[in-house]
Design a protein that fits this description.
With 121 residues, the chain is mostly helical. The protein has one domain. The protein has two helices and no strands. The longest helix has 107 residues, at 14-120. The chain is rod-shaped, with a radius of gyration of 49 Å.
Length: 121
């Protein structure tokens, strides 16, 4: 203790010392209560932080799952579209081939009719 405090304490009577001691104990008790309250708040905040971190982790996992599902769906859609495009292309090819065959048959039939008409005439 500093000399000033020691000399002040020496100059106090017993009643003043008791009052000082009582006030000091009250302040110390108030500080203990405040410290206890702050400890409780810290624990509550730590629990809230833990919950927030769990929610964040769950949201992150869920978003990754959604992205994976979306990628799989996109791949499936692209594959189905490619298959449909190939099918349409094949059908188009077959239609052109059938048209060419029909043209040839029609030309042949017309040529035969023309020959037939010429031969009669």
């Amino acid at each position: 203790m500093s000399q000033k405090v020691v000399s002040t304490l020496e100059n106090m009577d017993e009643e003043e010392l008791r009052d000082l001691l009582r006030d000091t104990l009250k302040e110390e008790e108030a500080m203990r209560v405040k410290l206890s309250s702050q400890d409780a708040k810290i624990k509550a905040l730590e629990q809230e932080l833990k919950k927030v971190e769990e929610i964040r982790e769950n949201a992150l996992q869920e978003s990754e799952k959604i992205l994976d599902d979306a990628k799989r769906n996109a791949d499936r859609i692209v594959n189905e579209s490619l298959i449909r495009a190939e099918k349409v292309e094949m059908e188009s090819f077959l239609l052109r081939k059938n048209i060419d065959i029909l043209k040839e048959k029609l030309k042949k039939a017309l040529d035969e009719k023309i020959l037939d008409v010429e031969n009669r005439g």
